[in-house]
Amino acid sequence: MSLIQRIDALLPQTQCGKCGHPGCKPYAEGIASGEAINKCPPGGNETISGLAELLKVPVLELDVSRGSAPAQIAFIREAECIGCTKCIQACPIDAIVGAAKLMHTVIIDECTGCDLCIAPCPVDCIEMHPLPSANVLPVVGGLAFTLEEQQARTAKRNHARQRFEQRNARLRREEEQKHAERLARAQKAAQHSETSNNPLQGAIARVQAQKTAAADAALKKAKIDVAMSRAQLNKSLKAFGHPPTFEQQSQLIILQQQFEAAEQTLAQLESIAPMVPVQPTAPANDAELKRAKIQLAMRRAELKKAQTSEAPTEQLEALSAALAQAEQALHDAEGASEKPAPDLVRVEKRPIDSQLRQLKTEMAYARADVSKLERHLDTPAELLAKARERLSEAERKVNAYVAP
Question: What range defines the domain where residue 56 resides?
Answer without folding.
Answer: 3-65
